[in-house]
Each structure stands twice: as structure tokens, then as C-alpha cells.
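Something for you to look into today, if you have time. Could you write out one complete protein record for me, on any chain you like? The space below this message is yours for that.
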Amino acid sequence: MAELTFTCVDVAPLRHAAAPTLRFRLRIEEHSGERLHALALRCQIRINPAARRYDDEESRALTGLFGGGPPHPIQFAMVSATVPGFSGETDLDLDVPCTYDLEVAAGNYFSSLRDGVIPLNLLFSGTVFGVGAHGLRVEQVPWHLEATCRLPVACWRDLIDQYFPGTAWLRLDRGTVDALARYRLDHAIPTADAAIVALLAGETRPAEQPPPTGQARPAAQTRLAGQARLAGRPR
């Protein structure tokens, strides 16, 4: 039977990917001396919020996620990989796509942190293919195998800033999006961001006021007004 251990030796943003992606470097060691033909690996990554401390600002930001109670583990990702045959030890790059959707618990948690590290647990399962005395041998990766990783918050922010510099994603109901579009049109507001800022401030763009008595309208406005009157005449 194969005797496996897993260690996370590094994690860094993956440059030039199509979407935000973290690359975890795993070291897999086999201690029985047997040569493995292949390894079909599954890795579940969970955030362990109870393994770090939080300042007052972070605690306040996380209230909506944990409801003021003790922090509980958060599912981050589930990824699979095929490991080529090896004996002794080998390294594997595990690419993990990331989301910046603040409605997703992991994205909400990450964005609430200012500094320090994000404690992660990597839980492994899968199938081991070995070569025994009677040919191919198949066994399961023991479910108790896991590794830990301390992802720097700065690493996460660097990753997100590559793809969404100075911005964040917020999911809205379709009806809310339509209402926001009507609000922008009614008040001549150029962007959704500016419309939300105006609503938060309780302000709307003031309607255009007519020029003071005795002051002539600009030529362009005069032409438009004349065209409107002509369009309203019966033919």
C-alpha cells in the first residue's frame, strides 16, 4: 500500500490567466519505496477562519458572514489533477480559479481582511494506480490526508488587482438592474456606479433650469426648440 504525504510549499498568483487564478505548489511524497504509475487526485480547499485573529474593523466587516457567532469553515474550491508516475517524491502545480463575487462566502471573507494570512486546509482524496507483483494495482487515497497553507492577504489582493483594479463585483437582482437603468435615464446619470453613489447620498442630479429672464438661449438650444415646435404643428 502506498504511503503518501502532501505538503503545500508555495502559493502565488498565476500571471496571464484568463481569470483570477492561484497556483498552489504541492509536494507529494511516497514513503514505502513503491513506484506509482499515476495518481488521480482531488483536492478540497477550505478556509479555516478560527485559525487567525481579527482587528475591530475586520470583525465588523465579517459580522454579516458569521452573524456575530464563532467563525466556521468556508468552502473555497474543489479541484482535480492527474499526477504522472513517480517514486520518492514529486511536485505538482495545482491551479485554483478564484471569484471576486462578494455574494460568495469565500470572496466576502477575503475582501474583509486587511493584512495577515488566510489559513487554508487542503483535503485530499482520489485514486492511486500502482504496479504490483501481479500487475496494475488500484487503491484509494486515504481521506485523512491533508495539508495546510497560509495564504498572505497581500497575495490575494495582488491577484485581484491584476484583473479588477480599483473595482469590486456585486450581484443584483434583474429587477434591481432594470430599476437602476431607469433611474440613470431619468436623471441623465452616465454610469451605474455614479447612480448608486447618488442614491447612497440621497441626491439626484438637479433638473436643468431655464435661463434668467432677458438672457438668450444658446444657439443649439434655440434650434432644438424651434424644431420641436415645428414637429408639433398639424400638416
About this structure: The beta strands are 4-13, 21-30, 36-47, 74-86, 89-97, 117-132, 135-140, 146-152. The CA atoms of residues 131 and 169 lie 49 Å apart.
